[in-house]
DNA sequence: TACATCACG
DNA sequence: GACGTACGTGATGTAC
């Protein structure tokens, strides 16, 4: 390869240039990964090519980085191999390849050849055998071998000259990693596999023996034969019996998993010599598939492909430029064939006018603002970009200064580049941005709307608005992230320039306003272009995906609601925070001294590592458990357990930790966020982060302000109303349990909600068979734990550990719960199978929530996903109810003649700032909206309070 | 940067 | 037989 000397960053140790090094790529792994990672794509002739695209992309990237002298991609040739002669069930219930994948195999071999890389395959042998054989042959010639695969079946090949490279984690797999996976050294892996078997490949193994047990046995007896010979003397009767009666099965299994390193080499090793691709052949292949973005990235779309180079065309043609006859279009679902750039830098009215005209003509324009900060309320507008058609976008710099470091003492001072005045640009753009006949498309519109509505930026009220981030989130919450770069790669097959690439990172970062105009244009106009293309690709999916109403009526309307809440902010009493901080500090000093005395020496109380060593190594307290990193666990549950046994040290540490948390996160963190201009804190609500439809809140997070302890509540009381106002808090009561009663249609729970009873007391009476007046605090506490546990998919084990009762008792409580409340168990099972079959569950209002990992093979991961699937409709349904209330609230208040401002949302609570004279009327209005926003089988209930501060209002 | 911890619903 | 064990977030400090 031409770049064989390039530093091999993904290999653990640099390989000397002269040293022969063979890279063997497990082709099947790449194909499988590409096929499942990418959405369906087809060529214009209908041939599916998503796996081809992914494979070509991955291989191309790999080839620019690897450091081998020799390289080959190894494929499986056929399903039937010599292993089927040994055991006819081998890989028997492997499903056939999906039909869309079948035609792609040949194209993938073509891609490999186009890169100038040898394809290796042989009838009757698996890729793994050939990999083993080439590794053996190459090693014999004195070379090093790297196998690009994370397949555990290849781990048996690891030895000093042979390593695996995990292509996902980009991490080498050597003896320690194998030891971690199988519990034995690589040379014993086949013995462990022979015992443990492998259900995916139908390798039988010995029933009842898993990897852990197998490793222990092999480490004790050396290898399979040693173990089988010693089997009659094994103590555990079941295990002895299993080994004795399945000895032959284990021997067969070992043959199945042992790779045939003596397989014939279909091509001599010399032919694997790495060499650069012939540009013509590669470009030809990429062009045939329509992989324009890859052609572009590899610089092959210039001279090498003159017939597809963009011809000059009218700058503002009303429709897309037509493709030259005989060429293919981009392979992505929304085939936008225009290239990404070059774009125009607009520096005067004459340059801007055609874009405004084109936007009006098209009725749609993508808009993106460039600023110098992520904080929309403080950011300065540096420039604006517009896109009016795919590939047709401009950047309007407004406040670009001179680039740094261009001047020296002998030259004149650097000058700012020529650009439009902000006033002129705003004057020209404001009518367009406020024109009801022109749709403005933005990505994360809330940010740009917040910047543009500020008076110093012209007070522009952008409308109407579409938001590609929210369009994506409405359909694909939980499926993937919704950032522009990720969506572009996923849906357009295009990797946009990143902000970091333009401004640099760390110390070298320069403000966007100092980025040279050509670079700024390439970045900013591309973002508008990408936004417009995403809109064209994603918006049409809304209706077929049954997400149109959700997007139009909830998500889109939330933009302005949240914008106004963020702008409003909430007042924080900084002087009170200071007093709280001083008080906490003083108490921490005392506690710290006492803790050091109890420990017998000073140490950093804030270090869990040091604390664990003192508690469990030095003082030998009982109940220590190590985490995965080998450090002692010292979280609150552990310390509380120790404290309850009378130990002073953990009790004091718990108190110290509480104060430390409150002080650093809330007292100091919050004080730093107070805007000096209005003494208020302005959070940023994230609309497309959570997998369930909830909002999240950052910088500062105002959704986790303390309340559960008295010390924490002091913080909450520092959130105050303006003079003449109060804070009014409205909470949905038991909203998730109401959704449970609704969804599972549980008669007793419905009746309790209907009558306004305490739901946990009702549950206690129901499952413990008590009369209502027999329910004591303990019974209610247990019932409450169960009620919440159910919504979280809790197991008997979890309930037992939370209630501190034996697992058997927990099991019988859960049994009573399910039998007393018919419908709930069925609903839980239904949610799990819905998630398994469709990949998503839905809220009662129809929002799809995708469940990641529901198909995972690993039981732990799948278990997590199943619990997430159970919880998602409740959490997500509640989120949707409160969002509906929020979008109706401003109008309801306005029509009632009320001037209350909505300030915060905390999942099931809304916080308002209300003039004292309007308290009662506002409470009534808020209640009306919140309780009428959904018609369930149970009533919705809002609990409302008010006071001079948030602590009292709650 | 990863992990542990802990604040909230 | 093994493996984990209640969902969803964001901020902070320590240690690597």
Automatic annotation (TrEMBL):
Keywords assigned: DNA damage, DNA repair, DNA replication, DNA-binding, DNA-directed DNA polymerase, Exonuclease, Hydrolase, Nuclease, Nucleotidyltransferase, Transferase
Domain 3'-5' exonuclease: 343-543
Database matches in InterPro entries: 3'-5'_exonuclease_dom, 5-3_exonucl_a-hlix_arch_N, 5-3_exonuclease, 5-3_exonuclease_C_sf, DNA-dir_DNA_pol_A_CS, DNA-dir_DNA_pol_A_palm_dom, DNA/RNA_pol_sf, DNA_polI_H3TH
GO molecular function: 3'-5' exonuclease activity; 5'-3' exonuclease activity; DNA binding; DNA-directed DNA polymerase activity
Alphabetical list of SMART domains matching this protein: 35EXOc (SM00474), 53EXOc (SM00475), HhH2 (SM00279), POLAc (SM00482)
One annotated GO biological process: double-strand break repair
Cross-referenced Pfam families: 5_3_exonuc, 5_3_exonuc_N, DNA_pol_A, DNA_pol_A_exo1
EC code(s) of this entry: 2.7.7.7
Sequence ranges assigned to domain 5'-3' exonuclease in this UniProt record: 20-275
UniProt enzyme class: transferase
SUPFAM superfamilies linked: 5' to 3' exonuclease, C-terminal subdomain, DNA/RNA polymerases, PIN domain-like, Ribonuclease H-like
Function of the molecule: In addition to polymerase activity, this DNA polymerase exhibits 3'-5' and 5'-3' exonuclease activity.
Protein family: Belongs to the DNA polymerase type-A family.
Entry protein name: DNA polymerase I
The species this protein was found in: Teichococcus oryzae
């Amino acid at each position: 390869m031409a770049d064989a000397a390039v530093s091999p960053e993904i290999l653990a140790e640099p390989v000397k240039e002269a040293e022969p090094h063979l890279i063997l790529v497990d082709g099947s792994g790449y194909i499988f990964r590409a096929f499942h990672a990418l959405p369906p794509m087809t060529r214009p002739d209908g041939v599916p090519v998503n796996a081809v695209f992914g494979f070509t992309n991955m291989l191309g990237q790999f080839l620019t980085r690897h450091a081998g002298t020799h390289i080959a991609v190894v494929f499986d040739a056929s399903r039937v191999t010599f292993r089927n002669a040994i055991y006819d069930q081998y890989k028997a219930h492997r499903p056939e390849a999906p039909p869309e994948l079948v035609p792609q195999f040949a194209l993938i071999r073509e891609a490999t050849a186009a890169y100038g890389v040898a394809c290796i395959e042989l009838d009757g042998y698996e890729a793994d055998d050939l990999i083993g054989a080439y590794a053996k042959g190459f090693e014999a010639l004195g070379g090093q071998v790297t196998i690009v695969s994370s397949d555990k079946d290849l781990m048996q090949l690891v030895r000093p000259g042979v390593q695996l490279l995990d292509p996902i984690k980009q991490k080498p797999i050597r003896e320690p990693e194998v030891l971690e996976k199988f519990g034995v050294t690589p040379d014993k892996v086949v013995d462990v596999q022979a015992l443990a078997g492998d259900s995916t490949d139908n390798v039988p193994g010995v029933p009842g023996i898993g990897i852990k047990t197998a490793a222990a046995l092999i480490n004790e007896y050396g290898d399979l034969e040693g173990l089988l010979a010693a089997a009659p003397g094994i103590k555990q009767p079941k295990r002895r019996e299993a080994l004795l009666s399945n000895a032959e099965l284990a021997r067969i299994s070992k043959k199945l998993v042992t790779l045939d390193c003596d397989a014939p080499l279909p091509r001599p090793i010399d032919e694997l010599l790495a060499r650069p691709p012939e540009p013509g052949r590669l470009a030809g292949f990429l062009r045939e598939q329509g992989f324009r973005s890859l052609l572009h990235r590899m610089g092959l779309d210039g001279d090498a492909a003159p017939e597809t180079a963009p011809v000059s065309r009218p700058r503002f043609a009303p429709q897309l430029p037509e493709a030259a006859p005989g060429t293919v279009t981009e392979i992505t679902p929304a085939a936008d064939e225009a290239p990404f750039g070059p774009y125009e830098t607009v520096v005067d009215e004459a340059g801007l006018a055609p874009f405004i005209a084109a936007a009006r003509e098209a009725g749609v324009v993508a808009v993106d603002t460039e600023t110098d900060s992520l904080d929309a309320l403080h950011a300065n507008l540096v420039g604006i970009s517009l896109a009016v058609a795919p590939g047709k976008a401009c950047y309007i710099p407004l406040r670009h200064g001179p680039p740094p470091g261009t001047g020296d003492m002998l030259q004149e001072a650097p000058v700012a580049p020529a650009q439009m005045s902000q006033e002129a640009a705003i004057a020209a753009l404001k009518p367009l941005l406020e024109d009801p006949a022109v749709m403005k498309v933005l990505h994360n519109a809330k940010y740009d709307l917040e910047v543009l509505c500020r008076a110093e930026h012209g007070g522009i009220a952008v409308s109407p608005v579409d938001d590609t981030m929210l369009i994506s989130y409405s359909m694909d919450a939980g499926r993937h992230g919704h950032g522009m770069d990720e969506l572009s790669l996923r849906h357009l097959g295009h990797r946009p320039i990143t902000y970091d690439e333009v401004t640099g990172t760390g110390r070298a970062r320069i403000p966007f306003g100092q980025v040279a105009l050509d670079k700024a244009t390439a970045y900013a106009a591309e973002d508008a272009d990408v936004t417009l293309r995403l809109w064209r690709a994603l918006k049409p999916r809304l209706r077929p995906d049954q997400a149109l109403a959700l997007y139009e009526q909830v998500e889109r309307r939330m933009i302005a609601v949240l914008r106004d809440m963020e702008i409003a902010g909430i007042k924080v009493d900084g002087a009170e925070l200071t007093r709280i901080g001083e008080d906490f500090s003083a108490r921490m000093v005392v506690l710290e001294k006492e803790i050091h005395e109890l420990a017998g020496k000073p140490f950093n109380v804030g270090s869990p590592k040091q604390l664990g060593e003192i508690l469990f190594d030095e003082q030998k307290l009982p109940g220590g458990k190590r985490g995965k990193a080998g450090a002692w666990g010292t979280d609150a549950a552990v310390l509380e357990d120790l404290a309850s046994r009378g130990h002073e040290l953990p009790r004091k540490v718990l108190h110290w930790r509480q104060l430390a948390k409150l002080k650093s996160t809330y007292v100091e963190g919050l004080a730093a966020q107070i805007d000096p201009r209005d003494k208020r804190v302005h959070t940023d609500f994230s609309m497309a982060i959570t997998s369930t439809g909830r909002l999240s809140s950052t910088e500062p997070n105002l959704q986790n302000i303390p309340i559960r302890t008295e010390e924490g509540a002091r913080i909450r009381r520092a959130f105050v109303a303006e003079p003449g106002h109060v804070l009014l808090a409205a909470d949905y009561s038991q909203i998730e349990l109401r959704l449970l009663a609704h969804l599972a249609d549980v008669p007793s729970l419905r009746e309790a909600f209907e009558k306004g009873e305490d739901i946990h007391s009702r549950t206690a009476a129901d499952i413990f068979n008590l009369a209502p007046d027999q329910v004591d605090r303990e019974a209610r506490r247990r019932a409450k734990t169960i009620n919440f546990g159910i919504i979280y998919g809790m197991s008997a084990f979890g309930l037992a550990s939370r209630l501190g009762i034996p697992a058997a008792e927990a099991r019988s409580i859960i049994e009573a719960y399910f039998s007393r409340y018919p419908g709930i168990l069925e609903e839980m099972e239904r949610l799990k199978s819905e998630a398994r079959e469709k990949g998503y569950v839905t809220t009662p209002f129809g929002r799809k929530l995708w469940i990641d990992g529901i198909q995972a093979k690993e039981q732990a991961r799948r278990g997590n996903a199943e619990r997430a699937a159970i919880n998602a409709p409740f959490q997500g349904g509640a989120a949707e109810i409160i969002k509906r209330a929020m979008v109706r609230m401003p109008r309801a208040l306005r029509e009632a003649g009320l001037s209350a401002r909505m300030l915060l949302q905390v999942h099931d609570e809304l916080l308002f700032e209300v003039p004292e004279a309007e308290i009662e009327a506002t409470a009534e209005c808020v209640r009306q909206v919140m309780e009428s926003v959904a018609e369930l089988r149970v009533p919705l209930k809002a609990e409302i309070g008010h006071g001079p501060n948030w602590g009292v209002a709650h």
